[in-house]
Amino acid sequence: MKRIWKKGIWIISLTACMAFVACSDYLDVSNEIAESLDLEAVFRNPEYTRQWHANLFNCISEYSCTGGNNASGFTNVWSSIGGETLISSGPSARIMEAGYNSDTAPCHRWWVLYREIRDAFIFLNRVVPLGAIEDEKQLTEESVRRMKAEAKFLIAYSYFSLFELYGPVPLLTEEVDPESKDLNFARSTVDELLDYIDQLLEEVILSDDLPATLINAAIPDGNERYNLNEIVRPTRSAAIALRAKLWVYAASPLFNGGYAEALDVKNKDGKNLFPSYSIEKWKTAKKHLEAVLDDAETCGYKLYKAYKEDGSVDAGRSIYEVFQSYNDEIIWATGKNYYHTGSQDGVMEENTTPRDLYKGWAHVCVTQESVDGFFMKDGLTIHDPGTIYNEVNMTEVVNPCNDKQHLDKNIFTMYANRESRFYAAVTYEGKSWHIQPRFNYEWGAGFAKGEGSDNSVGDYPRNGYLLYKFKNRQIMYTSDYIKKWARPSILFRLADFYLYYAEACNEIDPEDENVIDYLDKIRERAGIPGYRELAAAGKKNIIGDQKLQRKAIQQERRVELFAEGQRFFDIRRWMICGEGEDADQRFVHGMNMNGERNQPLGTEKSFYRRTLIENRPWKRAMYLHPIPFDELQVNKKMVQNPLW
């Protein structure tokens, strides 16, 4: 059988992707049927029509998947390229250490997304209601309207996914005739692309053809509340959120006059592609973010919070449980999650488990830069005046992730007194597991020389840390590991948009109270003092200072959204990746994997010594991904991104 998700021809250019591919390469049909099947036949059959529609969802990125052999532009390879994580093996392991040019750039989205865009237009032009009322496979008028609205949403999402990576791209607004004599397409301007995506999303939002939300208010809690059979299908709320995110990107320096070299990029007809700065884009972003907030109130979206018996917020549980089951913070998610197990799923549990814990592979590491980015429990950074942070000795740390609140001994003070999100995100030397194994494992995770996850084999954790975020603390990863549970792979969650809103308010008016209010909502849930509390205590006052608030928002996004597929794009749209800037991309560090844990701290033989892991050949051109080299060779109207 040939399945709808299989693509029979690998497209090598935008021009080539206009060419027709046989229906049998898209649909689950026999070879015999495929011989006589054309587009008209597909869209006369309800089952084939539904399969074509399902295929359109291949445009969605899967950010729960990183490391190993998962080096696609649609997985979370961006976390590693952007310096949040390090990968020990596979094609994504040393992308930035090796560097790339316009010919060798990895992880393109170009061909896949243009193919999906064309498929969506084919669908829109041909789908009609089918079948009699008594037909169990009937395509009703209502179903067709919803499917068409979803196709439009997915076109908008695909163009946004191209925009965030490449900037302005060719804009195809209808099904292109593959017999056309001219299949060369020039790039649109930033504003042309924005206006088209915005118009498409407005049409979807106002159509009333999508459900407002998948939340069933009649069911108080549990996965049954969220209609998991349709969880990936976009709602009106998802469309409102995507529209707001689009305009946040549009207003950011990379696309709003801040990239000086881009201002000189022109199409071959002399048209400038990138605009000069406009504060109006921040105002538009703010308006659409307020629509997200209003919609959240209407539909019941809210920050997920777990509570203690006394009614206070349990920060540790809150920031853990938000990733363990569907909940009211999630605006849009997929049903696919690489922390599940199965023939292809589940690799993330192995990739993020120490080697001496049953089946652990220990492939996905956390960089020292990410470790340093987390706050202390008093809400200050490790660099703030008056911080309680130090790296001077060993101490005891209660592991809040352990089922018995295990007291871990001989822990480096670098890891003491940190905020809850740190312990929920990072496995470090000596940290006990959430359920201690039955065999002798008193010490905890061991990365130093001679320990269970040291560098004695090729696929070792390269810098002495592992990613811990997202793991299910109720189980051990063993042969009797729980095979399935409804854990979300989140695409949009409300915390993300609270921070976008704080950002937009700050860029328009730094004295707007919403800047601190929405920052502090996130910090309160995380169990650390907000900025109003810090200011009142005389510890740190950023209130009203645009630069300090901007930096605080960027730091909060780094921590709150750690390893969720956002930071690569955030630090580029902010343009803070250069030498000496807050997200300096020239190197990543870790602990000394050639050292031992019992050697004097900071000495050459000590594990506890900051060590350079990768020199990365960062260059300013990397703010935007290069247009694929093959596309430039065949498309006579195409121009390259700046500095490539």
How would you sum up this structure, described in words?
With 644 residues, the chain is mostly helical. 33% of the residues lie in helices and 6% in strands. It has 20 helices and 10 strands. The strands form 5 sheets. A two-stranded antiparallel sheet has the order 1-3. A hairpin with an 8-residue loop joins strand 4 and strand 5 (407-412). The chain is globular, with a radius of gyration of 25 Å.
Number of helices: 20
Query: Which class do the helix and strand fractions yield?
Result: mainly alpha
Helix content: 25-40%
| Sequence of strands across the biggest β-sheet | 1-3
- The amount of beta strand, in percent, is 5-15%
Mean pLDDT: 89
Distance between the ends = 43 Å
Low-pLDDT stretches? 1-26
Topology, number of strands: 10
Main sheet, how many strands, which sense, barrel?
2 strands, antiparallel
Whole-angstrom Rg = 25 Å
Order of helices and strands: HHHHEHHHHHHHEHEHEEHEEEHHHHHEEH
Overall 3D form: globular
